[in-house]
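Materials and Methods. Structural model of NAD-dependent succinate-semialdehyde dehydrogenase. The 487-residue sequence of NAD-dependent succinate-semialdehyde dehydrogenase from Sulfuriferula nivalis was retrieved and submitted for structure prediction as follows.
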Amino acid sequence: MMTLELNYPALLKQNAALLAGSWVAADSGEYFAVYNPATGVMIAQVPRMGRVETERAIAAAAVAQKQWRTLTAKDRSARLKTWFALIMQHQEDLARILTAEQGKPLAEARGEIAYGASFIEWFAEEAKRVYGEVIPAPLGDRRLLVLKQPIGVTAAITPWNFPTAMITRKAAPALAAGCTMIVKPAEQTPLSALALAVLAEEAGIPAGVFQVITGDAREIGAAICASPVVTKLSFTGSTEVGRILMRQSADTIKKLSLELGGNAPFIVFDDADLDAAVEGAIASKYRNAGQTCVCANRLFVQDGVFDTFAQKLADRVAQLQVGDGFVDGVTQGPLIDDAALAKVESHVADAIAKGARLVSGGKRHSLGGTFYEPTVLADVSPDSLVFGEETFGPVAPLFRFKTDDEVIELANRTEFGLASYFFSRDIGRIWRVAEALEYGMVGVNTGIISNEVAPFGGVKQSGLGREGSHHGIDEYLEIKYVAMAGL
Ligand SMILES: NC(=O)C1=CN([C@@H]2O[C@H](COP(=O)(O)OP(=O)(O)OC[C@H]3O[C@@H](n4cnc5c(N)ncnc54)[C@H](OP(=O)(O)O)[C@@H]3O)[C@@H](O)[C@H]2O)C=CC1
Ligand SMILES: O=C(O)CCCC(=O)O
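The predicted structure was written out as tokens:
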């Protein structure tokens, strides 16, 4: 069992989840263990809950929402601001919990806590700006109004790659709008979610407004989807599970936000600043060991600069430090589990079998476990698995291209449409390419695009809806049109 040194040990919740304002075990008394992916050592146990507990949480959320929605926006905003302040006060402990269960380097974990908290601060401010409309009426005795009201009881199902930020990005707009939310975190990373719940309680967020349920994903997901009381579900994770949840939500016509897989193109044109492009590629590709849905998945490099870029990238990749995220100087942690490792290995083997050249890495790291060497592959064929599927690992496959039209066609040749990136210094090309890419987000001369003030989301089969920005709160609001006559 791992001993996690914390300044505030109460943040590490063991054996209990937060339902209806009480920290409780599963009805069955069953638990499951959470492990440190860097060492395989157990950190804690959490309850294995299922359908019955989910139904209880939904009932509590419905009761709580009746009160929560009647608070003034200013009051909800104040409590969210307190939650934000508590998260930042405990940033170091929260980062340590995050690194322990997820594996990312501690510096990245600290960054995720600040990033996650920023959504709470932002939506605390937006809570006060949910404006309606008065529409000029077509008849003189009419007054036409638009009200925006909270959608009601909402739920979130979240992944392991951002155990904190993917929760706050959903819960903050929900609570700001006057909704309640039940969160089901990934089984690998429930401890960060439970720590957020501890601080939500301390911030004065009432019982039933923010609940965290741990346990059986299928049972909990099915109970959420089947419930007519839950009017909105927000999910971040694989496209495959997104499809299941969308199907299961059909019977109750639930409003959905889906943030699913990506297959990000990262294009380096021959007029690019190559050093900036290399730094962008490092940030986008190797962040979180390549385990983000916005990671560059396919790097397209123009013929004239291909070999120089490949060499510069390999030199920079050689500086990455692989290891336990708690060790100073480490920049790449382990992959989340054996299945993730197997996927990375299969993508690399397939690319090489189809003619790719190994520039660096290409195998498991000597540290063992699920550590994998940061890898660069050159002259990868578009027939390779890496072209069609996200690798979710530290592998940069470089594809050679000649013309703008060719690379735009290659970049758009996927059912996904989340993030995309390109590097160029030609203003005409920048506009043309930014407009031609079929993606929800485009980074121009940068590998990092995420922040709380911008709308994050995808087109095509990468999902539905937007998170963050002033658009993010609309996902949790219903529009009500009021027509007044006889005035
Ligand atoms: N868009 C993104 O940010 C992410 C994309 N992915 C992609 O998905 C691949 C697989 O990762 P994986 O962790 O399996 O992602 P999943 O989509 O399986 O997991 C995401 C969340 O969905 C839950 N879940 C899984 N199955 C169901 C279900 N039938 N009903 C309701 N909830 C469910 C999981 O719970 P539990 O953990 O308890 O099973 C978890 O909370 C990755 O390799 C990557 O390509 C993964 C994570 C994030
Ligand atoms: O991988 C994801 O699910 C997206 C989170 C990363 C980000 O917000 O940049």
